[in-house]
Amino acid sequence: MRIAVLVKDVPDLVEELELDESGRALAVDDLSYVPSEWDDQALEEALLLKEASGAHVSAVALDTGDIDNMLYAALAKGADRAVKLVGDYDRTMPGRQRARILADYLADAGYDLVMTGVQAVDDLDGQIAGLLGGMLGWPHASVVRDVAVGSGPVSFVQEYAGGRMAEFRSATPLVLGVQAAKKPPRYVPIARIRQVSRSATLEEVEAGAPSAESTLAVQRLYRPEAQGHATMWEGDAAEVAAALVALLDEQHLRS
User: What 3-state class would DSSP assign to 109?
Assistant: First the structure.
């Protein structure tokens, strides 16, 4: 079983987010970037499959910036191979363009299972797995967990609204959008990543240019408008309790 895990870097939401001059995008050059947390879940699930079944795991990323450390971290965690798709790319590429480049690479790369995070914080549209499945003509499912591989079909659990679950089996090749791994993503220290970066090699693959895929056009971005405020009460417990009771009476919430 050969597994490709698609990983990407996303803005660190701890940072202050600013808009660019157009007001239609974030000022990406001023942000710091971290691995997508859902891609970390997909990588962890793949590594657990490797430990359980001997699968071969490759981490694959578009070269949209300083992603080398992210790929070295995947190797340090246990991935067998790290592939950087090289081209004239930037982080603001729409998901459909990103999916087309990935699909062109994956079509003939010989992977049995492609796993990616169910979504990412920079778009939250959750479309990459579905787009890849459609472009490649492979079966696909998203919001999945509990992936298992063996000599036959791949099995997994798909989550639905209201806490409902369904178990599926699918032949390969297959694309999965992973919601959560069986265990929390493993941690590797910076020293280990640096050690791997000195001994391992990232495989660079020349990939195609972004195509003119149809996409939505952003008209405006703006900060959320405050709809209310919080009241902070000071004093001892009796004073705070009295203030709370008075507020409940004022709002007619106490019978």
Answer: coil
Residue 51 token pair: 């430990």
DSSP label of 14:
T
In degrees rounded to 5, what are phi and psi of residue 34?
A: -135, 160
Bridge partners, 52 (sequence order):
none
- Those residues with Cβ within 8 angstroms of residue 184's Cβ, 6 or more apart along the chain or in another chain: 44
* DSSP at 209: P
DSSP annotation string for 237-251: HHHHHHHHHHHHHHT
56 - beta bridge partners? 2
Q: What distance in Å separates the CA atoms of residue 138 and residue 107, rounded to the nearest whole number?
A: 10
- Residue 96 to residue 106: CA distance in whole angstroms: 15
**What is the tens place of the pLDDT at every residue in 88-140?**
888 878 888 899 999 999 999 999 999 999 998 887 788 899 999 999 999 99
238 Cβ neighbours under 8 A, 6+ residues apart: none
Rounded Cα gap, residues 44 and 75, in angstroms: 12
Cβ distance 63 to 84 under 8 Å?
Answer: yes
| CATH no. for 2-206 | 3.40.50.620
Show the low-confidence residues of the chain (pLDDT under 50). Answer: none
Could you tell me the two tokens for 205? 């693959």
Determine the residue type at 167: E
Which of 222-225's residues contact partners 24+ apart within 8 Å by CB, and which partners?
222/19, 222/23
Half-sphere exposure of 177 (CA within 13 A, CB side): 18
pTM of the predicted protein model: 0.83
CB 203 within 8 A of CB 74: no
Tokens at 15, concatenated: 């940072």
The domains of the chain are located at 2-206
